[in-house]
Design goal:
Number of helices: 5
Strand order of the largest sheet: 1-2
Order of helices and strands: EHEHHHH
Shape: elongated
Strand content: 5-15%
Helix content: 40-55%
Distance between the termini: 39 Å
Radius of gyration: 16 Å
Length: 123
């Protein structure tokens, strides 16, 4: 199989697997990598991540194929804007979640799901 855009040959049975690591600001870079990947090759068959990579992975697989890049871009524009801090603070208050869990604790899976759902409702 040859990609129409890049002219690169990829065997039809070759899997495209995207693994995203943690590292805060690295997450914005990952969003750009995903956008380039789908433009030049194809959607990954598997997506996995840790920390910020897991949030990006959730945004990728949790949205329809046609909206994935758009939703990643919207998320990263929000969290890197000056608008983000007060809006997220309001979200934590609304969701009754402490933005700084006690030392050694992490957000529960439900708290993370609630935070992502809250951010997804913002325009």
């Amino acid at each position: 199989m040859t990609s129409e855009r890049s002219g690169t040959h990829h065997p039809p049975a070759e899997d495209c697997i995207l693994v995203l690591q943690g590292g805060g600001a690295l997450g914005a870079y990952q969003a750009g990598v995903f956008e380039s990947l789908v433009k030049t090759w194809r959607e990954p068959s598997w997506v996995a991540g840790i920390s910020i990579g897991a949030i990006n992975a959730a945004l990728i697989v949790g949205n329809p194929v046609s909206r994935r890049v758009e939703r990643l871009r919207a998320f990263w524009e929000l969290v890197t804007s000056s608008f983000a801090a007060p809006v997220l603070a309001q979200g934590f208050e609304t969701l009754k979640i402490s933005p700084m869990p006690p030392m050694g604790d992490i957000f529960s899976p439900q708290e993370i799901a609630d935070i992502i759902a809250y951010v997804a409702t913002l325009k």
